[in-house]
Design brief:
The chain is of the alpha+beta class. Helices cover 34% and strands 21% of the residues. Helix 5 packs parallel to helix 6.
């Protein structure tokens, strides 16, 4: 068997270690606490676009529910720590997503996630840019930073208003993509237009910060506007791209336990309709929100993809010692 060797070079592994040290120094200087949270959870991710690995505990039932899921993010326990009064915190660790494997996806990868109390998504996205610039400096590089709204991004690139444009316009723009739009939702079309038509055009030396997403793509973000007047509601969410590589996704976090439960139930309903596994709701997270999650913003950044961008690599295998096929 010849595939026992790592796919990343020793240079790439050393750069990863330097990046971890730089991340920890960045947050230590800002008094943001590093924490560790469980990798195995009694509740899986409800997002219909994310699949969780499932395992089973064979020990005594006093240990809790036997069915467990590998975390797709440390988000829920980090929010429980915030509700308990820990304050600004971050975690740098491994997460797992089933069904995602390819040049830019590995089922097991490293995620940096952090939360800032009293911040909104726009302030946090600028700190995210600082983290990325600190990382690029390790390899003698930098990037110009540009901010835009999700709406302006679509209008500039395709001449389509993603918040108001009718579905006929969206499906017309889909003709340039070799994907049949039949059965796709409005958000499916928007996602495909972004990933297939807009994202590939992003300049390699630019760090693009896109904020204020459609309300239907809120995930765990607060909504703003839409109750009165002509302007549609938007989700206080941002994503960061370094060239065509998506690096980070952040929110001005929803703190309402009732609304969060409603969103979880909508996700679960959609998963049932798609024939996907329906995981238990994280009742401990909802209890933490009900107790009182402080106003905050949080972001998750893919460290392996950041390393790809730093090295100019075109595949995660170049920055990962042993990718999924060799694990």
């Amino acid at each position: 068997m010849s595939d026992w060797r790592p796919t990343a070079t020793a240079e790439a592994l050393r750069l990863r270690a330097r990046l971890y040290a730089a991340i920890r120094d960045f947050f230590a200087c800002r008094d943001v606490l590093e924490v560790e949270t469980p990798i195995l959870s009694q509740a899986g991710n409800s997002d219909p676009n994310i699949s969780s690995f499932r395992t089973r505990f064979s020990g005594h039932v006093d240990g809790g529910a036997p069915d467990r899921w590998l975390r797709t993010s440390p988000e829920y326990p980090l929010k429980r720590l915030l509700a308990a009064g820990v304050g600004d915190c971050y975690e740098l660790g491994r997460v797992f997503r089933d069904g995602e494997c390819g040049r830019r996806h590995n089922p097991e990868f490293t995620l940096l996630e952090w939360y800032r109390v009293g911040w909104d998504h726009r302030r946090l996205m600028r700190e995210t840019a600082e983290v990325v610039q600190r990382a690029l400096a390790l390899v003698g590089r930098g990037a110009r930073v540009r901010e835009t709204t999700y709406r302006a991004l679509f209008l500039d690139a395709l001449g389509i208003d993603p918040l108001r444009g009718d579905e006929a316009a969206l499906r017309g723009a889909m003709q340039a993509i070799a994907i049949d739009p039949a059965g796709l939702s409005r958000d499916d079309c928007l996602d495909l237009l972004l990933t297939h038509r807009i994202q590939p055009t992003f300049a390699a030396d630019e760090l693009l910060l896109v904020h204020d997403y459609p309300a239907t793509q809120c995930a765990l973000a607060k909504l703003r506007g839409g109750s009165r007047g002509d302007e549609p509601a938007v989700a206080e969410r941002f994503e960061a791209y370094l060239g065509p590589i998506e690096l980070a996704n952040g929110y001005h976090e929803l703190t309402d336990a009732v609304e969060q439960r409603e969103r979880f139930e909508r996700d679960r309903s959609q998963r049932r309709q798609r024939g996907q596994a329906v995981t238990p709701i994280d009742e401990r997270l909802l209890a933490a929100l009900a107790h009182g999650l402080p106003a905050c913003a949080g972001v998750a950044l893919g460290v392996d993809r950041l390393l790809m961008a730093m090295m100019g690599a075109d595949a995660l295998a170049q920055v990962t010692a042993f990718p999924f096929a060799r694990s």
